[in-house]
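Tip: read the tokens left to right.
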């Protein structure tokens, strides 16, 4: 049955790529090479290029979400915004192969005032462009710029149906401001008679807001968003890679919803454990300053596999760090003294997992924030 399920999933992926609005023969061939590599060959020097990319156009955020390293103001990565000219240098190197380009990761993309020029340039490269935002910073008139930019998908993080619940996690956010901005975007789409951007309300389900799901669903229908998605919150995003999930569930239990689809609270485990990691073959994450990472869960600068402003991307993609990452996640071993971040990963079923030597520092940072927040309350 497991084999049948895998074939069914593969068939679905292929169909999705064939229907993709930005599909080209080159991208399709690259996707099949990815499937061949990740599912079978698992070469360290891979034949395929990434099929998706994250470019963090701004690493700053004006909210203070407690489970996010940017929200608690950790300083272990450089803060800034990519310029349009820098963005062009980055996207030109990855666009020929990728289907989807995500213009976000650790920051709020609309704090970058070049964002609409960035979207327009990305669209000129024949990719689907997606943005995730809390939509608290969105000056009047930007709805016109957004719809005109060609953005494909707008994902709005809105975790509640009232200010009282929303602000418990989105610290510093204003619920009615976000609702107003969504209404303006919906109205502009209607005025122009267009279907893009596709608007998705993303509701992180937590213990304090799970009772508002029905209310949020009704509000979404009344406002006119295209879809509302309810997703159970993840444990601390900064510690996720480096800490056993049992410890994270224990420390973050007060945030987790009672109706949790992700974690088993009794056994302190994932309900559906992750399989082998596909990420070193599938996608790439690039910070505003050009640092290149094998996955979008990495925050600290020290884990970068290279810098796209200093090296050609193809050299980084099949360079020493990516090759070692693929060797680790394919279970072919690793160097005894490896410092490769994949050797510390606790999210996937990785045999060669080690303890991150600076784990205590990570915990100290998070605990210091939690203590300060508790004192303020």
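Filled-in amino acids:
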């Amino acid at each position: 049955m497991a084999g049948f399920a895998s074939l069914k999933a593969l068939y679905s992926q292929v169909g999705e790529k064939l229907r993709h609005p930005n599909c080209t023969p080159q991208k399709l061939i690259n996707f099949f090479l990815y499937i061949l590599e990740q599912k079978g060959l698992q070469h360290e020097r891979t034949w395929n290029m990434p099929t998706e990319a994250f470019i963090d156009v701004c690493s700053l955020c004006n909210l203070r979400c407690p489970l996010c390293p940017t929200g608690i103001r950790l300083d272990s990565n450089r803060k800034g915004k990519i310029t349009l000219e820098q963005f062009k240098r980055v996207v030109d190197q990855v666009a020929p192969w990728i289907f989807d380009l995500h213009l976000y990761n650790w920051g709020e993309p609309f704090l970058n005032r070049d964002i609409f020029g960035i979207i327009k340039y990305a669209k000129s490269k024949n990719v689907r462009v997606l943005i995730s935002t809390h939509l608290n910073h969105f000056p009047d008139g930007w709805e016109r710029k957004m719809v005109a930019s060609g953005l494909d998908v707008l994902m709005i993080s809105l975790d509640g149906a009232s200010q009282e619940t929303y602000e418990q996690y989105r610290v510093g956010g204003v619920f009615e401001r976000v609702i107003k901005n969504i209404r303006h975007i919906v109205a502009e789409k209607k005025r122009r008679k267009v279907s893009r951007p596709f608007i998705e309300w993303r509701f992180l389900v937590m213990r304090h807001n799970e009772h508002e799901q029905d209310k949020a669903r009704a509000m979404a229908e009344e406002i006119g968003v295209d879809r509302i998605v309810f997703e159970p919150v993840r444990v601390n995003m900064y510690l996720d890679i480096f800490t056993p999930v049992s410890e994270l569930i224990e420390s973050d239990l007060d945030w987790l919803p009672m109706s949790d689809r992700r974690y088993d609270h009794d056994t302190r485990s994932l309900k559906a454990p992750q399989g082998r990691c596909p990420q070193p073959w599938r996608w790439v994450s690039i910070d505003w300053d050009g640092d290149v990472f094998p996955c979008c869960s990495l925050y600290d600068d020290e884990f970068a596999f290279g810098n796209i402003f200093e090296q050609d991307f193809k050299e980084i993609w099949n360079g020493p760090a990516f090759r070692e990452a693929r060797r680790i996640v394919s279970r072919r071993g690793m160097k005894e003294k490896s410092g490769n971040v994949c050797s510390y990963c606790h999210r996937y079923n990785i045999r060669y997992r080690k303890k991150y030597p600076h784990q205590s520092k990570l915990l100290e940072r998070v605990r210091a924030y939690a203590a300060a927040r508790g004192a303020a309350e």
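The first strand starts at residue 52 and ends at 55. The chain has 13 helices and eleven strands.
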